Amino acid sequence: MGLSCFACFNGGNKRQRQEEDRLASAEARAKAAEAAQKRQEEFEKSAAGRAARAQHVMAKQSANSNKGEPVLKWQMG
């Protein structure tokens, strides 16, 4: 009988530990998301971030400029 009471108390500890782990995981995810956001903002402010953005815009414009025409045009002659 004493063993079954121990199982009841141990189950409660297990649930409490799982809840604490869940809360700790949620907090860690929130901190990681905040750190990632901060890194993204710092990158966008940096010279490398500005260059990457400019390159992305140029690539987008280049992709839209040919509108289905072949990039290389051959001439006979």
Q: Your description of this structure?
A:
With 77 residues, this protein is mainly alpha-helical. 82% of the residues lie in helices and 0% in strands. The protein has helices at 2-45, 47-65. Helix 1 (2-45) crosses helix 2 (47-65).
Helix-strand topology string: HH
Largest sheet: none
Strand content: under 5%
- Write down the overall geometry: elongated
> Structural class, from secondary structure content?
mainly alpha
Which runs of at least 5 residues are low in confidence (pLDDT < 50)?
Answer: none
Radius of gyration: 29 Å
Task: Report helical residue fraction.
Answer: over 70%
β-strand number: 0
Determine the mean pLDDT: 83
Distance between the termini: 101 Å
Question: Helical region count?
Answer: 2
Keywords: Lipoprotein, Myristate, Palmitate
Organism: Hevea brasiliensis
Region (Disordered): 39-77
Protein name: Small VCP/p97-interacting protein
